[in-house]
Specification:
Blueprint: H1 2-35, E1 83-84, E2 91-94, E3 100-105, E4 114-121, E5 126-132, E6 139-144, E7 157-165, E8 174-182, H2 187-195, H3 200-206, H4 210-220, H5 228-238, E9 255-258
Helix pairs in contact: 3-4, 4-5
């Protein structure tokens, strides 16, 4: 009888210990499975910055002239010809009713008679035509129609010219020309400009708005001519896709606005 009871007690102890061991092993396996997380399940790191998309100003293109050819008349021989700051397509967008057009003019009042700014619609009808006298400074100059003039219409194309008259007797002259298309100000662009999370020229550039991007950028040099950040932005702009503005002089003090 005693041996039977001892046998029963031994069997119960063996069963209890076996069940406990299996429970512990199951918990360890479950814990190990939970600790091994799939890397794809981990949330992205907040500090990781998104790469900025490269600027793109490529377009189908329109007839134009970015660099002035040989002079007619008695213009002085110069190392750097007049150059319009426009993409390879000779065209660009703006959201402005009175946009600005930038050129590099390597002439002074002692070398040429005057400069003429012309803006025409697609029917070649003059929207604006006005002569300007140059000063003794050479460099980047901006031309635009006055704020009181008729604004550009959204969705319309316009052709602009900058003509340089080497003397008062010459009918034709050196010139550059380009096209501008006024596009509507989208809600996305408007909100980004209001948020001011980056500079205006960067925002316009990201949206492919050429004339407003280069205008905002070059105007910033007026107050910060030695700013290295702006110099980097300038290089990014003139080397962007669809833009081939090479061998331009450094932007700095050679800055003029003509209205």
């Amino acid at each position: 009888m005693g041996s039977t009871i001892a046998l029963i007690i031994g069997f119960l102890l063996f069963f209890t210990n076996s069940t406990l061991a299996q429970s512990i092993k199951s918990q360890e396996t479950s814990s190990s499975t939970v600790s091994k997380k799939d890397p794809q399940d981990e949330p992205p790191k907040e500090e990781q910055e998104e790469e900025r998309e490269p600027l793109d100003f490529s377009d189908t293109g329109r007839p134009g002239q970015q660099t002035a050819g040989e002079s007619r008349g008695n213009c002085s021989n110069i190392d750097r010809p007049m150059k319009a700051l426009i993409p390879v397509s000779h065209s660009g967008k703006t959201v402005s009713a009175h946009p600005s057009f930038w050129v590099y003019l390597p002439y002074t009042s002692e070398e040429v008679s005057h400069v003429e700014f012309i803006l025409q619609n697609e029917a070649r009808e003059d929207i604006w035509r006005s002569p300007f006298a140059l000063d003794r400074d050479i460099g980047y100059k901006s031309f635009s129609i006055p704020e009181t003039a008729t604004p550009l219409e959204v969705g319309q194309w316009y052709r602009w010219y900058i003509k340089v008259y080497c003397d008062t007797q010459t009918a034709s002259s050196q010139y550059v020309q380009g096209w501008v298309n006024r596009v509507p100000l989208t809600s996305g662009l408007y909100l980004e400009l209001q948020q001011k999370s980056q500079t205006e020229h960067q925002t316009y550039g990201n949206y492919g708005i050429w004339y407003d991007a280069i205008d905002r950028l070059l105007r910033e040099y007026k107050s910060q001519p030695s700013n290295l950040v702006l110099e980097g932005d300038w290089q990014n702009l003139i080397e962007a896709k669809g833009v081939e503005l090479k061998n331009l002089p450094q932007v700095g003090s050679s800055y003029k606005v003509v209205k």
